[in-house]
Amino acid sequence: MRNPFFKSAILFFACSMGFAQQPNPPGQVKSGEKAVNQAYLFAHMTHEDYGRLYYSVSTDGLHWYPLNGKKRVFEDYQGHPDIAKGPDGNYYIAGNKSDASPDITIWVSADLITWKKHSVYTPNLKQVPNYPDAMQRIGAPKLYYDAPSGKFIMTWHTPHQEGTKDDGERYWASQRTLYVLSKDLKTFEGPPQKLFDWNFGTIDVSIRKVADSYYAILKDESYPTLYWTTGKTVRIAKAASLTGPYSLPQEPISPNFREAPTLIPSPDNKAWYMYYEQYPGVSYGLSIADNLNGPWYQASGYTFFSDWDKYSLPQHVRHGCMITLSGKEYEALVTKFGIEK
Question: SUPFAM superfamilies from the xrefs (predicted)?
Answer without folding.
Answer: Arabinanase/levansucrase/invertase (SSF75005)
